[in-house]
Design a protein that fits this description.
This protein is of the alpha/beta class. The chain has a single domain, classed as Vaccinia Virus protein VP39 (Rossmann fold, 3-Layer(aba) Sandwich), CATH 3.40.50. The protein is built from 6 helices and 5 strands.
Length: 125
């Protein structure tokens, strides 16, 4: 469905430019869904990990794009024991956070997984 709604190539160009500008190599995408963006980031040689709550979406991602790393997790409570240069959250994922508590929990975990000079790309549209 999303293939017909979103232009992932255009979206990738925006992220690619930001990642290069800020020297982001190790990337975490929260709410990676079926892996459309992750596939493009891996093809561009970024060290990518996608996280999604729904196993069904991760199954699609693994079947469609076996070149990407994805795992199940909740953006409000994930623990990965690593830090990232960049954490990406698209608006279509962020909108699933329905309460202030959800937003705060997500941002706390983002902060805990972001390198001190890392960046958050949060696209709300």
């Amino acid at each position: 469905m999303y293939q017909t709604i979103f232009d992932y190539d255009e979206e990738f160009q925006i992220y690619d430019a930001l990642l290069k500008k800020y020297n982001g190599k190790k990337v975490l995408e929260l709410g990676c869904g079926s892996g459309n963006l992750g596939h493009r980031l891996v093809q561009a040689n970024f060290n990518y990990l996608g996280l999604d709550l729904f196993p069904e979406m991760l199954t699609i991602a693994r079947e469609e794009f076996p070149n990407i790393k994805v795992q199940q997790g909740d953006m409000r409570s994930f623990e990965l024991n690593t830090e990232f240069d960049v954490i990406i959250i698209s608006g279509r994922s962020f909108c699933y956070l329905n309460t202030n508590k959800d937003v705060f929990q997500c941002l706390i975990h983002v902060f805990n997984h972001l390198k001190s000079d890392g960046i958050i790309i949060l696209v709300i549209s």
